[in-house]
Amino acid sequence: MASFDLHAFINQYVTGRDESLFTRDLAENHDAMAARIDGKRLLVIGGAGTIGSSFIRAALQFHPAKLVVVDTNENGLTELTRDLRSAGKFNVPADYLTYPMDFGAPVFEKMFRHHGGFDIVANFAAHKHVRSEKDRFSIEAMLNNNVFKAKDLLDLLLEYKPERYFSVSTDKAANPVNVMGASKKLMEEVILAYGRDFPVTTARFANVAFSNGSLPAGFLERLNKRQPLSAPTNVKRYFVSPDESGQLCLIACILGETGQVFFPKLGEEQMITFSGIGEDFLRVQGFTPLYCETEEEALSRVQSMGASSTEYPVLFHPATTSGEKSFEEFYTPGEEVDLQRFAELGFVKNAARRDREELSPLIKEIQDLMDRPTVTKADIVGALAERIPNFAHIETGKSLDGKM
After folding, report:
1. Which of 207, 274, 377, 387 has a 20 to 30 A CA-CA distance from 216?
2. 3-state secondary structure of 240
3. pLDDT tens digits, one per residue of 277-314
4. Which pairing describes strands 95-100 and 229-232: parallel, antiparallel, or unpaired?
5. Residue 314: in which H helix or E strand, if any?
6. What is the pTM of this model?
7. Nearest alpha-carbon partner for 10 in 207, 170, 250
């Protein structure tokens, strides 16, 4: 196997950029960002994940006085700390703490109250996969994480109002076709409903190349385990690098104004397919893709591979699973966007907002629905469709768990 530089591969074959998309915006706004970060108390929820940890690395180019990181992934927090301490290029504050806990658990509230609140709160804890909409139980878990616990956090922040609050969204929230996108659209409305109480912003952005749990990251695992690569051929996506994802969120969090929904300025010509990434990935590793028609053929081919084989079995077919959108978009007709304020970032200025008084009973209705013993996935999808404009769920009866 050839030596593999993941960072260089992402730059050359995925984003097509030698430097960060946001280099100019970071440079032009450095002083303004320093004024809002230096000396501040920072809480990052979901900070052990790809985007959350990248946000932290971007924030530690400045000098916060305090950093508290919360995540359910204890091992991820351990590696984050080792990386920050060992890299020698981050301004880790003396007051730095990591907590392996669920931000919806009672112990989180105890911890939060003990610290007396924070100046900057950024929430990256989320279900992010379309595959999480298998049935009523997986959907309830997704809504609980993406919406209900997010609202509980915001209610807590009413007592300890931050200077900045940010929560990550997704490009799938624009004209959602899956429950994950719908949950994030509802989350956007929830956080924007608190914009009268403290500054809130969010960001919709592209897939993060080789992020934890992503299909491209799975290519690394499949090759390491000598298993076939599988990917859809008809699904196009925008991509940003892990560093870019954190930088985008930091700019949105620190420089955004209440109610703004940020997105990267990427053109349609920059969308690429997962199968295309897979083909480039194999070629860089010294293999030629061997195209198979069935899972059985792919498994048989990979099991018969010799040590000197230069062909690698792949199963690249059109997507047939529920909730898959063939392309992505960052905003929808009717949303007013500003493309002038930043060099490589745009933002929605008039994202739909509802009052907290209107949203609370709406959320309670969805929670009550899911408590019914006989509720089905279709019932929940229907309830979401009634409450979320432009939600057009794509149901095929097939889940990603049913394939490679």
Report:
1. 377
2. strand
3. 999 999 999 999 999 999 999 999 999 998 899 999 99
4. unpaired
5. strand 311-317
6. 0.90
7. 207
